Amino acid sequence: MTENKTKEELEQELDGQASEEETKTSQTETEDVAVEDAADVEADGGDEADSELKAKDEEIESLKQQVETEENKYLKLYAEFENFKRRNRQEMETNNKYKHQGMVEDLLPIIDNFERALKIEGDSDSFNSLLKGVEMVYNDLVNTLMKHDVREIESVGQPFDPNYHQAVMTEASDEDDGIVIEEFQKGYILKDRVIRPSMVKVSE
């Protein structure tokens, strides 16, 4: 009886040990599954974090491109505005510089008439008095133009220059070729702009 109990006890002990081992094995498997699940969760979390980081990087890059585009637009508009201001300033300076040009052009025929009148000869006292009066008016007019930077173009004895002279005749002369030998009508310059070229005869 004792031996049977002992066998039974042994069997129970063996069954208990087997049960414990199964329990431990089950716990180990459960722990392994939990670890694997945790690893999977961690991996999924890492992938999600990488995706979010990538999305943020793409968003930052897109914003950088937008900023660069807007900056280029601003720089272009700024350059265009500066060019507009420069052109406007230059135009105003030019207009101010030559603002008397129209008046000068209107006065030149009057000066021509005065010069023709001064070439008329006469013997009477009344004529000479009149001529002096005409000469005074002519000189005042010329001096007024000079105050506004209007000056005559030098012609006779100067080399012909198409920028300042208009050749209406050529003539054989003892002078070198291309020298102005006679002036038919005076030319004038306002500051640095030719208002009217001189009408001249040129040697050949």
Can you offer a commentary on this structure?
Residues 1-57 are annotated as: Disordered. This is Protein GrpE. It holds the Pfam family GrpE. This protein is an alpha+beta fold. It has 2 domains: 1-97; 98-203, Head domain of nucleotide exchange factor GrpE (Nucleotide Exchange Factor Grpe, Chain A, domain 2), CATH 2.30.22.10. Helix content is 67%, strand content 14%. The chain has helices at residues 2-97, 101-118, 125-147, and strands at 150-152, 165-171, 180-185, 188-190, 193-196, 198-203. α2 (101-118) packs antiparallel against α3 (125-147).
Features:
alpha+beta; rod-shaped; 14% strand; Nucleotide Exchange Factor Grpe, Chain A, domain 2; three-stranded mixed beta sheet; 204 residues
Short recap of the structure:
This protein is of the alpha+beta class. It has helices at residues 2-97, 101-118, 125-147, and strands at 150-152, 165-171, 180-185, 188-190, 193-196, 198-203.
Biggest beta sheet attributes: 3 strands, antiparallel
With helices defined by DSSP (H or I, 4 residues minimum), what is the helix count? 3
Strand arrangement in the largest pleated sheet: 1-4-5
Helix content: 55-70%
What order do the helices and strands follow? HHHEEEEEE
CATH architecture of the largest domain: Roll
The CATH superfamily of the largest domain appears as Head domain of nucleotide exchange factor GrpE
The radius of gyration over CA amounts to 55 Å
Could you tell me the number of beta strands? 6
The overall number of domains is: 2
Distance from first to last alpha carbon: 162 Å
Please report the first level of CATH classification, the CATH class of the largest domain: Mainly Beta
- Overall structural class, as computed from helix and strand content, comes to alpha+beta
Proportion of beta-strand residues: 5-15%
Average pLDDT, rounded to a whole number, is 84
- CATH structural fold name of the largest domain: Nucleotide Exchange Factor Grpe, Chain A, domain 2
Molecular shape: rod-shaped
Biased composition (Acidic residues): 10-20, 29-50
Family: Belongs to the GrpE family.
Organism: Salinicoccus roseus
GO molecular function: adenyl-nucleotide exchange factor activity; protein homodimerization activity; protein-folding chaperone binding; unfolded protein binding
